[in-house]
């Protein structure tokens, strides 16, 4: 019996929309499921520019970027539900996945040959970064504050402390400052800013917002509403240095402590997770350990740029097509991609040698004047610098990949 | 027969249990006063959530605690079913870590026999490991108490009050008692921020503030101080978990850190027991020292704890500690009509239903000699359900009636918009005036899962705003002073000041 | 003789973030050091003479499917105009529908830039 769909895309953000559009262009029968009431995902609330420089060769706001996809998706009349929640994915066989979905039309039992999982990420919150003290009103994650301001048009508070200097934290600092709030500090536990230099300048320096590097918020005070935060210096092992405590009065704490792939349903289905990316282990087709289930976007690995997210979505759709044509991914031999010196994470995890592959990686620590070195295949790529905040994206050619027997190590080495 | 007006002060689990029992009688008009915006927002919402078996109290030292805990345990078995409060009864293992600790366990076995706790016995290391595969294999043995349970404790007080109101009790939130009127040695009523309320009987169940209320009635021989307990909660997918309730034999240092799997399937460890000064009745802050202590002691009980990065919440709760640990549950000749249910420390949660019966049977009927008869039409049931636990046919039925049941708003806990709207309706009909985010959290578990509300809190706030007709920023966590926002996004630019960074 | 001023800035052209120093005498640039490429040099000159930024915000929209539309200046504006423009934006509300790219305020604060919508809002009929 034929399945209801060739591919079900779970998640209607940039990765999901790009995947669904590409899958439809390839002639597949597609269903897209989105949990929110609207399509678009997180870029809907990203009103700042910096999106689409690679994909459209234009500098767009997140909103402008995502609407190009939303309009295209709607024009193609791709079947979809918003306000839909996938309860379970059962990998019944290689060629049949069974999904249970709650929608406002009822509980649906759907069969599909492949699944593309693009549910994005969740934000790390207060309790995951070791902050003790009270739990008063006035503590938000950065994304929640962004939704409040830039979708719903409400102001969280007046005197703001931001914990974390990744791009999201920096961009929210500027948003608060622009709307007239007093951003008293951005606090970063590492000795370097977590976000792009561009954002440190435009979001903090432009507004005279102090950045505390090598500092951690250890405690929040205030029984009813936030009254202040306590911060301390941290040593090179990120441990608080006693005697360096300092108070900052504020009424709002914004936690911008990074993202984690949100994979609850996929984990219950049994996929293998990479502890470094906290996303699934995948091969070059972005196929997870369950045949026919693909993953893309921030559910795969936390990306810096929406352009990469879209690229992964499109690749996942092409992989689903390949899977359907061949009743499975036709690769016989896999080579493992292995993390070497100063590499914190890397995807995909397995390469076939049949295709050129785009590799995404992140380093552990910043270094200048380095090269990426692949010892097994005798390949080097020179880079002026590497930074944890900037994802490395490089292409490995199939001719190079096939030089390796069973593994390819990627490491950062200093130039002599 | 003359009707009696009963005012109960405090809608924690003790006050809420009392009004539920009082609502069974024909002759009583019952008023429940609560200073917070909702029931159960004080000490009742942050605790270990255990229904204790009742073998930890010496009947010689604390006769009421010893007696009422066992009865409370039995009553909860029935009450959780009637009220639709998620609960389970996996039994408890009091673990003797060293050989010497077995003597302590034996002491508690004796107490169990004295208190009439069913099924309590010593188990050796081998049987212990069968009962609890994740127990630390090197411990000496344990005392097994099969009647112990775990419940979704934040839901208890709201559920009890909802059921009591359905049976005629009137609930007045945001009502703070400021004084008690006494004439000729009899109580006449309470002065509150909302006006004077007449009363023939006043029952003080004000938790941490029960000493203050008692003083208003002229009974000032005791004070209640807060004792803090800190906890960790892990994500529902964090392993290993435990099947039973684990804690160690009490020592002079600690009564014991517990390791349980709570009702949302996450491992929970705690508490500490830190005595705070009398005036620190709102200090529910966690501390690094407290949390480290919990971690260290919990580790001794199990083979291993889940990794720390699987912790989704740390919190602290307060217990109202009376002098010498003795509950003050008394009626007085002067002022006649005043009843204390004060300083109800552990095992207060477990004993609450029994305390309620004790007050009605021993104090109101016997001591005050008021004749009461039971209603013929009293309804013990509160209809509660979780969409995710229903079979698909039932889910489809609900969605057909109201498509909002097909909109899952909290993804971690799979709570639907329909359930949230339903809870708001219930809150309103129970007498809650300000629908808060915490009120929804206590009743549904939404916003308390993996993401701690970072995804769904704004969606739930939008529903509250829509259902109650207020602007989104006025939705609050727990009432005045805890609003979600300060105004629309231009509020600072329109006003003077602000704008300090934009110079 | 004019006063000599030193500017220290971090280049934002690429992620390298070169530290560039500019020495000015009056309104004349007399020395630029530390830049890594010609683009960086140009950036530094622009930054000390007339720094410009794109401004972004949201404004309230009535009867729309979203409560706000997001907006931006359609080109960079002088930095010192940012607070003026933000004050302007705090005063206005628009009616749905709003299209992406629609001009909300022309030549805002005499900057030569328009405020344009970057997110649409569809009109929704009130539910009774």
Structure description:
With 416 residues, chain A is an alpha/beta fold. Chain A has 3 domains: 196 residues, FAD/NAD(P)-binding domain (3-Layer(bba) Sandwich), CATH 3.50.50.60; 133 residues, FAD/NAD(P)-binding domain (3-Layer(bba) Sandwich); 84 residues, no CATH class. In chain A, 21% of the residues lie in helices and 35% in strands. In chain A, the strands form 7 sheets. In chain A, strands 1, 2, 5, 6, 7, 8 and 21 form a 7-stranded mixed sheet that branches. A 5-stranded parallel sheet of chain A has the order 11-19-13-14-15. A 5-stranded mixed sheet of chain A has the order 24-22-29-26-27, with no helix packed on it. In chain A, helix 4 links the parallel strand 13 and strand 14. The termini of chain A are far apart. Chain B is an alpha+beta fold and 503 residues long. A 6-stranded mixed sheet of chain B has the order 9-2-1-13-21-20. In chain B, strands 14, 16, 17, 18 and 19 form a 5-stranded antiparallel sheet that branches. In chain B, strands 6-7-5-15 form a 4-stranded mixed sheet. The C terminus of chain B is likely disordered. Chain C is of the alpha+beta class and 128 residues long. In chain C, a hairpin with a 5-residue loop joins strand 5 and strand 6. Helices cover 17% and strands 36% of the residues of chain C. In chain C, the strands form 3 sheets. Chain C has a 5-stranded mixed sheet. Classes of the chains: A alpha/beta (416), B alpha+beta (503), C alpha+beta (128). Chains in contact: A-B, A-C, B-C. At the A-B interface, strand 7, strand 8, strand 10, helix 3 and strand 12 of A face strand 19, helix 9, helix 12, strand 24 and helix 13 of B. Strand 12 of chain A pairs antiparallel with strand 24 of chain B, so a sheet runs across the interface.
């Amino acid at each position: 019996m034929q399945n209801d769909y060739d591919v079900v895309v779970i998640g209607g953000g940039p990765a999901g929309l790009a995947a669904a559009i590409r899958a439809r262009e390839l002639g597949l029968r597609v269903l897209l499921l989105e949990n929110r009431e609207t399509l678009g995902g997180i870029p809907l609330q990203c009103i700042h520019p910096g999106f689409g420089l690679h994909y459209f060769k234009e500098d767009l706001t997140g909103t402008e970027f995502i609407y190009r996809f939303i309009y295209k998706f709607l024009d193609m009349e791709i079947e979809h539900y918003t306000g839909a929640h996938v309860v379970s994915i059962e990998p019944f066989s290689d060629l049949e996945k069974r999904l249970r979905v709650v929608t406002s039309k009822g509980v649906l039992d759907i069969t599909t040959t492949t699944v593309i999982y693009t549910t994005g990420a969740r934000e790390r919150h207060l309790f995951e970064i070791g902050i003790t003290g009270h739990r008063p009103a006035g503590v938000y994650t950065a994304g929640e504050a962004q939704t409040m301001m830039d979708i719903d048009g409400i102001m969280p508070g007046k005197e703001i402390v931001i914990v974390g200097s990744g791009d999201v934290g920096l961009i929210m600092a500027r948003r608060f400052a622009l709307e007239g709030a007093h951003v008293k500090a951005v606090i970063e536990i590492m000795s370097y800013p977590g976000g792009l230099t561009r954002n440190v300048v435009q979001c903090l320096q432009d507004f005279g917002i102090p950045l505390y590097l090598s500092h951690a918020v250890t405690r929040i005070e205030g029984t009813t509403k936030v009254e202040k935060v306590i911060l301390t210096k941290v040593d090179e092992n990120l441990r608080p240095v006693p005697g360096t405590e300092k108070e900052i009065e504020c009424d709002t704490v914004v936690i911008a402590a990074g993202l984690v792939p949100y994979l609850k349903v996929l984990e219950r289905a049994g996929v293998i997770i990479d502890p470094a990316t906290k996303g699934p282990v995948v091969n070059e087709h972005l196929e997870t350990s369950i045949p026919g289930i693909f993953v893309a976007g921030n559910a795969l690995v936390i990306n810096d740029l929406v352009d990469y997210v879209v690229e992964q979505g499109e690749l996942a759709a092409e992989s689903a097509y390949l899977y359907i044509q061949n009743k499975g991914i036709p690769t016989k031999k896999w080579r493992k991609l292995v993390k070497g010196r100063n590499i914190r994470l890397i995807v995909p995890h397995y390469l076939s040698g049949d295709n050129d592959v785009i590799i995404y990686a992140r380093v552990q620590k910043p270094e200048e004047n380095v090269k990426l070195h692949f010892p097994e295949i005798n390949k080097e790529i020179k880079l002026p610098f590497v930074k944890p905040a900037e994802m490395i994206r490089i292409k490995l050619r199939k001719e190079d990949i096939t030089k390796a027997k069973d593994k390819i190590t990627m490491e950062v080495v200093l130039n002599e | 027969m003359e009707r009696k007006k009963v005012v109960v002060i405090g809608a924690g689990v003790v006050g809420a249990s009392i009004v539920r029992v009082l609502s069974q009688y024909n002759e009583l008009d019952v008023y429940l006063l609560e200073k917070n915006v909702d029931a159960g927002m004080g000490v009742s919402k942050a605790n270990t959530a255990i229904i204790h078996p009742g073998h930890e109290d010496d009947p010689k030292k604390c006769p009421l605690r010893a007696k009422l805990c066992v009865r409370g345990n039995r009553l909860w078995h029935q009450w959780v079913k009637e009220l639709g409060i998620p609960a389970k009864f996996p039994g408890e293992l009091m673990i003797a870590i060293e050989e010497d600790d077995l003597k302590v366990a034996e002491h508690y076995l004796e107490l169990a026999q004295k208190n009439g706790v069913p099924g309590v016995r010593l188990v050796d290391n081998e049987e212990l490991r069968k009962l609890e595969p994740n127990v630390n294999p090197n411990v000496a043995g344990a005392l097994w108490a099969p009647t112990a349970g775990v419940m979704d404790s934040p839901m208890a007080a709201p559920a009890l009050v909802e059921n009591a109101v359905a049976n005629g009790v009137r609930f007045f939130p945001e009502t703070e008692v400021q004084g008690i009127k006494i004439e000729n040695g009899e109580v006449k009523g309470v002065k509150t921020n909302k006006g004077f309320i007449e009363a023939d009987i006043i029952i003080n169940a004000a938790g941490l503030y029960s000493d203050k209320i008692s003083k208003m009635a002229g009974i000032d021989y005791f004070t209640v101080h807060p004792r803090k307990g800190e906890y960790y909660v892990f994500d529902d997918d964090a392993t290993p978990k435990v099947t039973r309730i684990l804690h160690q034999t009490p020592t002079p240092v600690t009564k014991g850190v517990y390791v349980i799997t709570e009702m949302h399937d996450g491992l929970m460890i705690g508490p500490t027991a830190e005595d705070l000064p009398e005036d620190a009745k709102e200090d529910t802050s966690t501390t690094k020292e407290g949390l480290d202590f919990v971690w260290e002691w919990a580790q001794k009980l199990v083979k291993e704890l889940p990794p720390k990065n699987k912790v989704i919440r740390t919190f602290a709760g307060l217990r109202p500690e009376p002098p010498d640990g003795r509950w003050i549950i008394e009626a007085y000749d002067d002022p006649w009509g005043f009843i204390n249910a004060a300083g109800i420390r552990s095992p207060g949660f477990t004993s609450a239903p029994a305390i309620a019966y004790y007050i009605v049977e021993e104090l109101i009927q016997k001591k005050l000699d008021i004749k009461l008869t039971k209603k013929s039409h009293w309804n013990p049931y509160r209809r509660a359900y979780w969409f995710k636990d229903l079979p698909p046919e039932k889910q489809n039925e609900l969605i057909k009636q109201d498509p909002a049941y097909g909109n899952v708003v909290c993804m971690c806990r799979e709570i639907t918009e329909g359930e949230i709207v339903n809870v708001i309706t219930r809150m309103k009909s129970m007498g809650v005036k300000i629908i808060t985010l915490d009120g929804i959290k206590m009743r549904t578990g939404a916003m308390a899962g993996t993401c701690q509300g970072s995804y769904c809190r704004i969606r739930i706030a939008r529903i509250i705003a829509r259902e109650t007709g207020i602007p989104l920023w006025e939705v609050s966590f727990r009432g005045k002073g805890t609003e979600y926002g300060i105004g629309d996004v231009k509020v600072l630019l329109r006003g003077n000041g602000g704008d300090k960074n934009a110079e | 003789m004019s006063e000599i001023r030193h500017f220290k800035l971090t280049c934002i052209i690429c992620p390298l973030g070169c530290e560039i120093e500019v020495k000015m005498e009056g309104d004349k640039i007399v020395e630029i050091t530390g830049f890594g490429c010609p683009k960086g040099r140009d950036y530094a000159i622009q930054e000390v003479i007339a720094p410009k930024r794109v401004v972004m915000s949201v404004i309230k929209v009535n009867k729309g499917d979203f409560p706000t539309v997001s907006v931006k200046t359609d080109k960079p504006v002088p930095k010192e105009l940012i607070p003026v423009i933000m004050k302007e934006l705090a005063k206005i509300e628009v009616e749905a529908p709003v299209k992406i790219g629609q001009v909300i305020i022309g030549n805002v604060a005499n900057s030569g830039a328009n405020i344009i919508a970057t997110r649409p809002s569809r009109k929704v009929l009130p539910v009774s």
